[in-house]
Amino acid sequence: MSAHLKKRRIGFVIGIGLISGVVGWGGYWLNLSQASSPPTANAGGTTLTTPANGFTEVAKRVTPAVVNITTVITEKVSGLGSDQENFRDGLEEFFGQPFNPRRRGSERPWEPRGSRRGQGSGVIVSPDGVILTNNHVIDGARDVTVTLTDKREFKGKIVGVDPKSDLAVIKINAKQLPAVAWGDATKLQVGEYVLAVGNPFGLNSTVTLGIVSAVGRGHMG
Fold it and tell me: Which of 135, 136, 122 lies closest to 172 in space, CA to CA?
């Protein structure tokens, strides 16, 4: 992973194969077998039962550690708009020579820039403000803002990224935060329940249920 870090080496190793919870669709997947007794089947193998309020308790425990991440990304605008082209043509006609503005210290013609906003989810993995998110959430961001479930906002600093696994680590200046515990991916089994907790489309504290459909497919794509 260190070969893909863009900012600086992270103090701990993050790998898809080392965690049973992975960030996906902007949420946090928690292996329920780490939090409660697994579902059991009856003798006939046709009826599944779950622990009483098991999903509710897991959601209550994990949700405070899931954060909303908003970004501001600078983008180059390809080409000039019609108004800019008319302005350039007018200058060329007035001065009688081609008008080709350049940035100071650059040999490239000036390129207008625009900004767009993005958003996603992350999960606090350390009480001192270390947050795991997806690389595509913060890729190219010049500003990162983290909003906690209690509505407090912090400036986020990108610590490291791994585009290959689509993971990134950011840091906020905060202490005594709720954090999730790392699971053991080697114990993950096909068919186990998982909960996804996140903020899709800015809808805070959204929880959904799924199962582990396969394991050992980290090198696909």
Answer: 122
pTM recorded for the entire structure: 0.65
Tell me whether residue 53 is exposed, middle or buried, using C-beta atoms within 10 angstroms of its C-beta: 0 to 12, 13 to 18, 19 or more.
Answer: exposed
* Domain definitions of the chain by residue range: 2-74+113-211, 78-111
Architecture of the structural domain at 2-74+113-211: Beta Barrel (2.40)
For the chain, the farthest-separated pair of C-alpha atoms sits apart, in whole angstroms, at 91
Per-residue pLDDT of the chain (221 residues; tens, 9 = 90+): 444 444 433 333 333 333 333 344 344 555 555 444 445 545 455 455 556 578 888 899 999 999 999 999 877 665 555 556 566 566 555 565 555 555 454 444 544 567 888 999 999 999 999 999 999 999 999 999 999 999 999 999 999 999 998 999 999 999 999 999 888 888 989 999 988 998 887 788 889 999 999 988 766 55
